[in-house]
Amino acid sequence: MTIYDFSVKNSEGNDVLMKSYQGKVLLIVNTATECGFTPQYKGLQELYDSYRERGFEVLDFPCNQFMGQSPLSGSEIKSFCELKYHTTFPLMAKVKVNGKDAEPLFMFLKHKRGGVLFNAIKWNFTKFLISRTGEVVRRYAPTTPPEKIAADIEKLL
């Protein structure tokens, strides 16, 4: 199984085949609109602006599992992010990243690049960097600002 075997939902509820991102470098992030790390949206957009022409995508997966810090609906999240942080990268449907109801894509990502607590994601803004061939290259802690990931993205592009 590879990352390209998964299908996810976008913020409008439509199916998105991960294989449509084959050949691109991806940064997959679980986000929240009311988190101390929410200002990282600015850095994520800067990465996207810098590298999208070279085949880079940021995939935003809102998650409300951590102290209810993403209470908005999909359309409200989209409006918030576009107005406050001018985001233009793809917004996916709200997901769970831990537990028995976790999004299968995140189960796969955690299996490939586990962390503490039996691969659990500790908080919002955990980031996974994916190569053009679909390899889960690296996992970044929520405290890692997007600009610190730029050199790793450059290597994959």
Key traits:
157 residues; alpha+beta; 4-stranded mixed sheet; two-stranded antiparallel sheet; 6 strands; Glutaredoxin; 5 helices
SSE layout and pairing:
Elements: E1 7-9, E2 15-17, E3 25-31, H1 40-51, E4 56-62, H2 74-85, H3 104-112, H4 116-119, E5 127-130, E6 136-140, H5 150-156
Parallel strand pairs: 3-4
Antiparallel strand pairs: 1-2, 3-5, 5-6
How would you summarize what this structure contains?
With 157 residues, the chain is of the alpha+beta class. The chain has helices at 40-51, 74-85, 104-112, 116-119, 150-156; strands spanning 7-9, 15-17, 25-31, 56-62, 127-130, 136-140.
What does this protein look like?
- This protein is α+β, with helices and mostly antiparallel strands.
- It has a domain at 33-96 and 124-156: Glutaredoxin (3-Layer(aba) Sandwich).
- 28% of the residues lie in helices and 18% in strands.
- The chain is built from five helices and six strands; from the N terminus they run βββαβαααββα.
- It has helices spanning 40-51, 74-85, 104-112, 116-119, 150-156, and strands spanning 7-9, 15-17, 25-31, 56-62, 127-130, 136-140.
- The strands form two sheets. The chain has a four-stranded mixed sheet with strand order 4-3-5-6, with helices on one face. Strands 1-2 form a two-stranded antiparallel sheet.
- α1 (40-51) links the parallel β3 and β4 (56-62).
- The two termini are 23 Å apart.
- The model has no long low-confidence stretch (mean pLDDT 94).
